[in-house]
Amino acid sequence: MDQPVSDLESLPRRTLGRANGPLYRQLADTLRKPIADGHFAVGSELPKEAKIAEHFGVSLITVRQALRELESDGLIRKRSAKPAIVTARNPSVNLSWNFKNFADMAAFTKDAQLKVKSYRKEKSPAMQRHFGMDKDGIGYCLRSILSVGKQRKAQITTYFPPEVGERFTREDFTDVLIFRSVQRLLGLRLEVAHVTVRAEIADEAVASDLGIEIGNPILTVEMLYQSADQRNIEFSVARHPAELFSITYDAPNDL
Prior knowledge:
Elements: H1 23-36, H2 49-56, H3 60-72, E1 76-79, E2 82-86, E3 95-97, H4 102-108, E4 113-122, H5 125-131, E5 139-148, E6 151-160, H6 162-165, H7 178-186, E7 190-201, H8 204-210, E8 217-227, E9 232-241, E10 245-247
Parallel strand pairs: 3-10
Antiparallel strand pairs: 1-2, 4-5, 5-6, 6-9, 7-8, 8-9
Helix pairs in contact: 1-3, 2-3
């Protein structure tokens, strides 16, 4: 039986601009509202990709990226050679992590809250490695938990060299994005984040913070933030419940 098709023509032709961030992200956000309010009903087909591209004045590549994002949120199901089907009005708990710049990191933390557990001086091999400190050197460590509603998304451990960390107090970390608080408080721009992703298993501390069993798989993301003059300013380790996350990126054929 054919699925009912949702109408695009009754929606405003919103102008998308690169000044407002990635076009596919703007398009995905634009399509979420008619899905949430039932204009695109659960079980109905979205308009064809070419129709969406024409209506919003974007490329097919942008449309496909936007639809992949909606699929990652559990709102639609893409089909080969057929329009996508709406599967839910609201995002599922299962979340995708897909970023290529700091704006995408900000989008990832939408609707999240950061609970600070502690901020104090500590010794750590991580600080020795990334900040050039000797084994007796003492830096600063921020420990926090990132949540959306009742779902704990990440246990975050953030390290600062002593000359940076001494300028902060626990109360300074009011932004859900720690690097954004750092930029504001130091009056500088963090130029790049070097990212390392690995699979690990939860120890007792991680399991307690994330509400999972000891030994469960976790996705660990390390980020070393550098300033424009290539100084290492912040090193963050975020540990996520593995079953809640996937990593998505585009791999062009360069062969």
